[in-house]
Predict the 3D structure of the following.
Amino acid sequence: MLQPKRVKYRRPHGLSYEGIATKGNFIAFGTWGLQAEEGAYITDHQIEAARIVLSRYTDRAGQIWIRIYPHMAKTKKPAEVRMGSGKGNPEGWVAVVKKGKILFEIGGVADEIAKEALHQACFKLPIKCKVIKKEEK
């Protein structure tokens, strides 16, 4: 799974997924992209599941770009522990995704295949997404 090799702080303060993405909100590499329609935390397992769907659906043709990375550790307290006594231990890694962020891009395959692959990858993610095409200039 994706996770950072090193982090400065083990237990981060919460980064909010509220608001609209100002960076990474346009297709930069491929022809088709998957854009978030709402904000959320997306785990490393969900990113990996979507990546597997994309690579299998396209028969490993073309190229896939993952535009999100799980930089933030999510903490969790053990079961049946009383309130207080500090923050819990890191349990997993999440990517902070705001509305409008491009999650995945795909290029080098037929339009129908790319569109359907991104549509199938959307089912693996916990948010509403839409498939968009790069604007021609």
Notes: The chain has two helices and seven strands. The longest strand covers residues 89-97.
